[in-house]
Amino acid sequence: MATSVVVGEEVIRNKQVIFKDYVSGFLKESDMQVINGTLKLKLPEGSNGIVVKNLYLSCDPYMRNRMTRVEGPNLFSSFTPGSPLTGFGVARVLDSGHPNFKKGDLIWGTTGWEEYSVITELEGLFKIQHTDVPLSYYTGILGMPGLSAYVGFYEVCSPKKGEYVFISAASGAVGQLVGQFAKLMGCYVVGSAGSKEKVDLLKRKFGFDDAFNYKEENDLDAALKRYFPEGIDIYFENVGGKMLDAVLLNMKDHGRISVCGLVSQYNLDQPEGVQNLMCLIYKRIHMKGFVVFDYYNIYPKFLDVMLPYIREGKIMYVEDIAEGLESGPAALVGLYSGRNVGKQVVLIARE
Amino acid sequence: MATSVVVGEEVIRNKQVIFKDYVSGFLKESDMQVINGTLKLKLPEGSNGIVVKNLYLSCDPYMRNRMTRVEGPNLFSSFTPGSPLTGFGVARVLDSGHPNFKKGDLIWGTTGWEEYSVITELEGLFKIQHTDVPLSYYTGILGMPGLSAYVGFYEVCSPKKGEYVFISAASGAVGQLVGQFAKLMGCYVVGSAGSKEKVDLLKRKFGFDDAFNYKEENDLDAALKRYFPEGIDIYFENVGGKMLDAVLLNMKDHGRISVCGLVSQYNLDQPEGVQNLMCLIYKRIHMKGFVVFDYYNIYPKFLDVMLPYIREGKIMYVEDIAEGLESGPAALVGLYSGRNVGKQVVLIARE
User: Fold this and answer.
1) Are both A71 and A94 inside the same structural domain?
2) N or C end of chain A, less CB within 10 A?
3) A151 in a structural domain
4) Which stretches make up the Enoyl reductase (ER) domain (chains A, B) (predicted)?
């Protein structure tokens, strides 16, 4: 993503959310700044990138990790201080120097936190073919979080009918889908979330068998024993820390833990220590981390499954849409205190 | 295991190591007491147990866990205060009320820390058929630790030729075998141990490619980076705690961690917290605990593999044999400070 002012050609305002500097501790809105940049809408001769108009931006927990200075090779590079944040989004192609994309195409993938972006890294961009569903869905249920839920549950957990499934951050973009996949498979499903409203959503909208507000539980071990007197077969891990320690004590023998995220840890300078790993042995637990990028090749198959589920109303989906790029920093910060209800999206432009 | 004094029949002295009371913190010799009990060598009419003369007893790290009061269901029951310790051993059958065992048979399995035991729980006892190898081997390379090494490496790690393998507590009963299995498979193998003598043993006797004394490393992360500049494919976990945290930072993508034991934690009232679990995600790590009992059904197959290895000298094996039941408490305590060099065994009786 680059911004350049070119005088005498078609140069327009390009509002941007700038990453000010590396962050330590909890992310604050003031770690980001909204500025008015400019952009030339036409690509330079010979470029094989694309120019896009951003429509929706996605707030995803992993973004906090890109705000810490990363030393050495890592899954993600750090954001560049002084440049716009980048993240998943939905955009319309305005100009293209690449044969796979043409003006007018809708795409989802990594773009900038700005009104318009020049994208030169096209690997991992998907063309949107199905527009009978809301476009914002491609930041969530039909995008990276949706595919994460799908592979993290079906591929990592090897679920079976009748198993006991626990999901943390269960009303979030990934959790709400995992719970519904588990119900479709005939599992018993309980989720944790951080407010009464979210707990109600889990039980009433998403069909979870039960749900609880972890903020109201002094003793997470006791809470889990109440909801899973027979133990947990599958834990879909989104939060880490104290919840993981409590879950380890409540896993059944040969249980599986799919490690998708550890959002409770991302704003801590030192992660909390997890103490109950001895349970991995006693309970013969299989714990596996995964990264959704490894499964991009099954995205077409995933769409074939998900689109009918959505069209037929078999899977519900709740988004929390903030309006305007200016609301982006607050929306992103809110993710780490659980302010959002459902998938947090930022609407940049209605076409 | 029970002891009874019966007057007027064949009653003999039965020296025993008594578990005095539940232990907190580091195990001390004074947590056990050697006493002279007595035992009637003949089974009561109608019993389907066996009476055995114990020949070798095994000191195994998990035994410390049985010295803590266990609440609720667990893999192991706690030892009973006032009664002898129990553990793996090799014994000769003196009397049998069970059709599967007859007087004169040699067995290995769970017996008492005493000269003679009455065993009524016969599940998990194996008859020893091959006596061209030292009988003590059935407490180690041909017993529970050997089978643990075998399944923990081959079944849990899915090793491939050329992979980078790290083993902690590498000169112990399990570690020394895992390293040799990995070398036989064509892996690059490094082990950690707690003394120069052990490090030499790993390199010279067991054929490890390299080894280091973890007690001399201030920075385990830096040490691992030195021995594995390209990272670790397989970690065979015997110790836990700080070593696990350092290993997580040095795993390669799609690495596997076989969790066999966490001996560094067994004497702590609160386990150390492991902080680097985020690596499970970034590196797509598969971490799996296992319990050897689940694999007892493959013991015959295991023997078919191991006996030729031993007879042909393809696998080396080092034992640390303490003489006499009186030396049992010190031998067991020494296990947790790493005093033993190789598999710790207690010789109870030469026949």
Assistant:
1) yes
2) C
3) yes
4) 37-346
Q: Is A154 helix (H, G, I), strand (E, B) or coil?
A: helix
What burial letters (b/e) apply to A15-27, b meaning 16+ CB within 10 Å? bbbbbeeebeeeb
- Same domain? For A329 and A257 the reply is no
Three-state DSSP state, A71: coil
Are the beta carbons of A294 and B284 separated by less than 8 Å? yes
User: Looking at the 3D structure of chain A, how many domains does it have?
Assistant: 2
Here the CATH number for the domain that contains residue A266 is: 3.40.50.720
Closest by Cα among A323, A329, A319 to A346: A323
Q: Kindly report the average pLDDT of chain A as a whole number.
A: 95
CA dist., res. B2 & res. B15, Å (int) = 13
The residue behind tokens 């031998």 is B331
Under the phi-then-psi rule, with left for phi > 0, alpha for psi from -120 to 50, and beta for the rest, what region is A166?
Answer: beta
Which residues between 208 and 267 in chain A have a beta carbon less than 8 angstroms from any beta carbon of chain B?
240, 244, 259-262, 265
* A204 Cβ neighbours under 8 A, 6+ residues apart: none
Residues A57, A139: contact at Cβ < 8 Å? yes
> Which residue out of B242, B262, B287, B293 would a mutagenesis test of the A interface target, given it has the greatest number of A Cβ atoms within 10 Å?
B287
- Contact by Cβ (8 Å): B27, B62: no
Task: Tell me the three state secondary structure of residue A143.
Answer: coil
Same domain as B282, residue B214: yes
The structure tokens 């034992």 sit at B319
How many CB pairs (< 8 A) connect A and B?
96
The CATH number that applies at residue B110 is: 3.90.180.10
Q: Is A280 on the interface with B (CB under 8 A)?
A: yes
Query: Residue A37 is part of which domain span?
Result: 11-140+317-347
Do B277 and B161 belong to one domain?
yes
- Strand, helix or coil at B269? coil
pLDDT per position as a tens digit, B112-148 = 999 999 999 999 899 999 999 999 999 999 999 999 9
pLDDT score recorded for residue B5: 42
Residues A81 and A200 both lie in one domain: no
DSSP E strands: which ranges in chain A?
Answer: 11-19, 32-40, 50-58, 86-96, 106-112, 116-119, 126-127, 164-167, 188-193, 210-213, 232-237, 251-259, 286-289, 319-323, 343-347
- Looking at the fold, whether A126 and A70 belong to one and the same domain comes out as yes
Residue of B nearest to A287 (CA): B287
Instruction: Tell me the backbone φ, ψ of residue A157, rounded to 5 degrees.
Output: -90, -15
Q: How far is A151 from chain B (nearest CA, A)?
A: 13
State what percent of residues in chain B have pLDDT above 90.
91
Is-contact B340 B195, C-beta < 8 A? no
**What is residue B75's predicted lDDT score, i.e. its pLDDT?**
78
Task: Report d(CA B102, CA B115) in Å as an integer.
Answer: 19
Would residue B302 count as lying in a domain? no
Q: Rounded to whole angstroms, what are the CA distances from B208 to B46, B167, B250?
A: 53, 10, 19
Q: Which residue type does B15 have?
A: K
Verify that A277 and A155 share a domain, yes or no. yes
Q: Does some domain include residue A6?
A: no
Q: Nearest residue of A to residue B288 by CA position?
A: A286
Contacts of B287 in chain A (CB under 8 A): 280, 286-288
Q: Which of A351, A280, A316 has its CA nearest to residue A54?
A: A351
* Among the partner residues B75, B278, B285, nearest to A271 by beta-carbon distance: B278
- Does residue A165 lie in a domain region? yes
